[in-house]
What does this fold into?
Amino acid sequence: MVSGKVKWFNNAKGYGFILADGRDEDLFAHYSAIQMDGYKTLKAGQPVSFDIIQGPKGLHAVNISAPSAAAEQADPSQGEA
It folds into this structure.
């Protein structure tokens, strides 16, 4: 999986773009590729993880997931033993 941040996402149209860490090209993100329960949406600046595939008009982000609030609050210095 690749990490990045949401550049923008339009809820009304159901798509937006993600900027992957270490890449210059924007990745197309469709709401159907978001892996979450309930209303599938993303917010600008939100950190996400995803896979990249080649689409008909460029690169697409798929299997998009945002870290859970619990994971974001976990102490990164506490690794598994």
